[in-house]
């Protein structure tokens, strides 16, 4: 089933125009209702961190060249990480956002569904594992606590 979405006015949030279904090998059918809102994979913070590190590297480099070079190198590394995951796995990310919103599965199980959905949608194994590691490391505080603006979906 194809993901049907519409970009909202904020330029970052997408609304499902039709129900979306995914059959997970481990946890069965996951049904995301029309009108559910998602930001897909939440990787924008990586871009923000990369820009901040690159900027800091330039500024600090005037006074402490070695530290500036280090900050710049780390900034380029974060930018490369961002570039390797942005734009991939929108359907899997929508499923993951939905599972995190309702928290009907454990966080570990929701993250496993995300990995399975990434792989079954054709995302390269290395990229899928990288994205899975990102949610395992960075999404703990969001589990069960999404506050989607204007959420109108029903279960």
Q: Can you put this structure into words, describing what you see?
A:
With 155 residues, the chain is mainly alpha-helical. The protein folds into 2 domains: 5-43 and 86-142, no CATH class; 44-84. It contains 5 helices and 5 strands. It has a 3-stranded antiparallel sheet, with helices on one face. Strand 3 and strand 4 (28-32) form a beta hairpin. The two termini are 19 Å apart. 29% of the residues are buried. The model is unreliable at 147-155 (pLDDT under 50).
Spell out the key features of this protein.
three-stranded antiparallel β-sheet, 12% strand, 5 strands, mainly alpha, 155 residues, two-stranded antiparallel ribbon
What's the layout of helices and strands?
Layout: E1 5-7, E2 14-16, E3 20-24, E4 28-32, E5 37-38, H1 44-61, H2 65-85, H3 90-102, H4 107-120, H5 125-138
Antiparallel strand pairs: 1-2, 2-5, 3-4
Condensed summary:
The protein has a 3-stranded antiparallel sheet, with helices on one face. With 155 residues, it is mostly helical.
Strand residue content: 5-15%
Distance between the termini: 19 Å
Strand order of the largest sheet: 1-2-5
How many whole angstroms does the radius of gyration measure?
A: 18 Å
Q: What does the largest sheet look like?
A: 3 strands, antiparallel
| Secondary-structure-derived class | mainly alpha
Number of strands: 5
Write down the secondary-structure element order.
EEEEEHHHHH
């Amino acid at each position: 089933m194809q993901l049907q979405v519409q970009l909202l006015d904020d330029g970052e949030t997408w609304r499902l125009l039709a129900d979306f279904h995914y059959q997970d090998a481990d946890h069965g059918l996951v049904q995301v209702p029309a009108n559910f809102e998602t930001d897909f994979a939440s990787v924008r913070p990586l871009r923000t961190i990369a820009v901040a590190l690159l900027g800091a590297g330039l500024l600090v480099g005037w006074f402490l060249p070695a530290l500036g070079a280090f900050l710049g190198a780390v900034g380029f590394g974060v930018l490369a990480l961002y570039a390797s995951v942005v734009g991939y796995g929108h359907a899997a990310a929508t499923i993951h956002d939905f599972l995190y919103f309702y928290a009907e599965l454990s966080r570990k199980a929701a993250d496993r569904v995300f990995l399975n959905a990434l792989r079954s949608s054709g995302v390269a194994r290395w990229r899928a594992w990288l994205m899975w590691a990102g949610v395992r490391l960075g999404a703990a505080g969001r589990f069960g606590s999404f506050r989607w603006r204007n959420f109108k979906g029903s279960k």
